[in-house]
């Protein structure tokens, strides 16, 4: 998939300002994106404090969802086994539409999955979730090659590494590149998907950027 890097960088500036999210009852009124972010923040606070509630895991919930799904949030996250969105946000069945791929990159299949949830399931929020100590970003920063299918991940992450090198911060290249990459991907979702661009432009969908810390269990929202 061709990359519109300048457009992607500009597109993220057009995203509506995001506040914050929530566990959704299929039978209840649909929450807006801001309410969803507040709920996700609250869930992560419970998880990080060791007070997770593990909501919506009952057999009744399973039967309820048999009638259909209306997940309040879409999460584009990394495949890393240490970063399961449902657990770190303390959400349950039917609460999150999760798309996971190494390096949380944007490519045709992930974009199509996100478009489906946003357009057909009515999810009002998309969260691009990066995480500290990401192996894909680390490999890219260390100059990994581009052979085979793994090389496509490196190619997607290189612009973030280049940007982090150009404006070094106090937390180190890999850390800075992880945050930069998550922001880049958020911009790409709009720049490379007319469907998402339309939904965002109409105010029906918001896109938020977040990064998970493996050691503290907390999520930082950009």
Q: Which structural class fits the helix and strand makeup?
A: alpha/beta
Cross-sheet strand order for the largest sheet:
2-1-3-4-5
Percent range for helical residues? 40-55%
The rough form would be described as globular
| Uncertain ranges | 1-27
State the order of secondary-structure elements, H for helix, E for strand. HHHEHEHEHHHHEE
Describe the main β-sheet briefly: 5 strands, mixed
Q: Proportion of β residues?
A: 5-15%
Compute the gyration radius: what is it? 17 Å
Distinct helical segment count = 9
Distance between the termini: 26 Å
Oligomer designation: single chain
Number of strands: 5
Mean of residue pLDDT?
Answer: 89
Summarize the structure in words.
Mean pLDDT is 89; it is low at 1-27. A hairpin with a 6-residue loop joins strand 4 and strand 5 (219-221). The longest helix has 19 residues, at 173-191. The chain has helices at 5-11, 33-48, 59-65, 85-88, 108-120, 135-141, 150-166, 173-191, 194-201, and strands spanning 73-77, 96-100, 125-131, 206-212, 219-221. The radius of gyration is 17 Å and the shape is globular. The chain has 222 residues and is of the alpha/beta class. A five-stranded mixed β-sheet has the order 2-1-3-4-5, with helices on both faces.
Brief overview, please?
With 222 residues, the protein is α/β, with parallel strands linked by helices. The chain has helices at residues 5-11, 33-48, 59-65, 85-88, 108-120, 135-141, 150-166, 173-191, 194-201, and strands at 73-77, 96-100, 125-131, 206-212, 219-221.
């Amino acid at each position: 998939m061709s990359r519109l890097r300048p457009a992607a960088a500009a597109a993220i500036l057009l995203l509506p300002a995001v506040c914050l999210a929530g566990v959704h009852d299929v039978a209840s009124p649909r929450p807006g994106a801001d309410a969803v972010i507040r709920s996700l923040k609250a869930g992560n606070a419970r998880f990080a404090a060791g007070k997770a509630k593990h909501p919506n895991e009952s057999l009744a919930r399973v039967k309820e969802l048999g009638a259909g799904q209306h997940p309040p949030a879409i999460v584009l996250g990394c495949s890393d086994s240490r970063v399961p969105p449902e657990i770190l946000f303390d959400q349950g069945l039917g609460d999150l539409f999760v798309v996971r791929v190494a390096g949380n990159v944007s490519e045709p299949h992930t974009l199509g999955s996100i478009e489906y949830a946003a357009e057909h399931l009515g999810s009002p929020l998309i969260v691009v979730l990066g995480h500290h100590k990401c192996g894909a970003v680390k490999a890219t920063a260390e100059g990994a090659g581009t052979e085979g299918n793994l090389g496509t991940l490196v190619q997607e992450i290189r612009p973030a590494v280049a940007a982090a090198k150009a404006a070094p911060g106090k937390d180190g290249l890999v850390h800075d590149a992880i945050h930069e990459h998550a922001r880049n991907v958020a911009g790409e979702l709009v720049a490379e998907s007319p469907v998402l661009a339309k939904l965002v432009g109409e105010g029906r969908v918001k896109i938020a950027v977040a990064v998970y810390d493996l050691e503290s269990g907390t999520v930082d929202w950009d």
